[in-house]
Design goal:
Oligomer: single chain
Strand content: 15-25%
Radius of gyration: 19 Å
Number of strands: 6
Structural class: alpha/beta
Distance between the termini: 49 Å
């Protein structure tokens, strides 16, 4: 089986980490490649959707190409921003992989069928954990609070920062 992972070849950060983790998890059971264009010989097209370089038309146009029309399309959404073409989610006719239930609620609000939504929580890997006191020293934190809440990665409304703000307000 051949899977084409559509993503910016020079992607960094969360999308890069997600893509490389996915390739590692698939192992040698399938053939994977990273590209911006699928080949007709690909069995599955998996798009790592990023708003900076993939407007809705990018996916809609790819999905309607005759040589790709019958291929399974999977789109991993890394965020769901407010977009002028909200109904593209429903029109795309693809399966969505999302990382949290906030995104699931938003897709359901936009009338995407529940069968097309797959929630697969993915979290940040902690590569080299260090003791709390050492972390406070390195970050030059002298505040006496017991707990510190952080937002790893890119903080945006589409990734649920509003839920973090709400949770903090309740502490």
């Amino acid at each position: 089986m051949k899977i084409c992972l559509i993503t910016e070849p020079t992607a960094t950060g969360g999308i890069y980490r997600y893509t490389t983790d996915l390739i590692a998890a698939l192992g040698d059971r399938v053939e994977t490649r990273i590209a911006m264009e699928p080949n007709p010989s690909d069995d599955i097209i998996h798009i790592q959707h990023a708003w900076g370089y993939m407007p809705p038309e990018f996916i809609l146009n790819m999905k309607t190409r005759p040589e790709l029309n019958l291929k399974p399309f999977i789109v991993t959404l890394h965020e769901i921003p407010l977009w002028p073409h909200e109904n593209w989610y429903k029109r795309a006719g693809v399966d969505f992989i999302i990382g949290n239930t906030m995104m699931e609620r938003e897709l359901l609000r936009l009338e995407v069928s529940q069968e097309k939504i797959h929630v697969i929580p993915h979290g940040a890997k902690i590569w080299n954990p260090i003791p709390k006191q050492e972390a406070r020293r390195k970050l030059e934190l002298s505040i006496p609070y017991k707990n510190i809440i952080t937002q790893p990665g890119f903080a945006s409304w589409g990734k649920g920062i509003s839920e973090v703000i709400y949770a903090v307000s309740r502490i």
